[in-house]
Write a structure and sequence with these properties.
By secondary structure, this protein is mainly α. Helix 7 packs across helix 8 and helix 8 runs antiparallel to helix 9. The longest helix has 23 residues.
Length: 207
């Protein structure tokens, strides 16, 4: 059962990343070489399967951020975290399409999202303390920028798969500008969840 679950997650992750969330459970079973009933014994619905895949991806991002908290170079740590985050969005079509689906209401997914937001804020706080980013930048800004960078580059990615790196560098230059004027709007208190949103922190209510 453990082997079959691992196999299903691997096959489903690849299928959803390639074609989006419209891939059927039947096709996933076929790709995995398993009976459709076996899929449903492990995952009662497509949203349960998507939730499991989301947990894997969120765990990867959070593990990266946790590891980087001990880095001496806070600016380099923040750069690596953002690079990993945008790479994840670019590589996984389903990551954006899953926004707003019931899979995001699974308690484990919500907890993972909240933890990712907390770690992103800790990374950003270290960068602020070292003077590596502007003093008015928050972890919420960073998480939102991951989706913003991906969405900016999205129309180019089929012809130029690395185009997102240009916009990541533009964003990083703006974050690190030491003499920039104060931003005209307060930091967001809530990360939006809905059509057009594409970032890993999804509708997390901030204090």
């Amino acid at each position: 059962m453990v082997r079959n679950r691992r196999l299903l997650l691997g096959v489903a992750t690849a299928a959803f990343a390639e074609r989006g969330v419209e891939v059927s459970m039947g096709e996933i079973a076929q790709r995995a070489g398993l009976a459709k009933g076996t899929v449903f014994r492990h995952f009662a619905s497509k949203d349960d399967l998507l939730a499991a895949i989301m947990l894997q991806l969120l765990d990867r991002l959070t593990s990266t951020a946790d590891r980087l908290l001990d880095a001496d170079d806070a600016a380099g740590a923040l750069r690596e975290f953002m690079t990993t985050g945008v790479e994840a969005l670019v590589a996984d079509r389903a990551f954006c399409e899953v926004i707003g689906r019931p899979s995001l209401q699974h308690s484990e997914v919500r907890d993972a999202i909240n933890h990712l937001c907390d770690v992103a804020e800790a990374l950003t706080a270290r960068a602020r303390e070292q003077g590596a980013v502007r003093s008015d930048i928050t972890g919420t800004d960073i998480v939102l920028l991951l989706g913003g960078i991906h969405q900016t580059a999205a129309p180019l990615l089929e012809a130029e798969p690395q185009a997102w790196r240009r916009y990541l560098e533009l964003a990083l230059d703006g974050l690190c500008s030491p003499n920039a004027r104060a931003l005209p709007h307060r930091p967001p208190r809530r990360l939006p969840l809905g059509p057009g949103s594409c970032h890993p922190a999804f509708s997390r209510q901030l204090p």
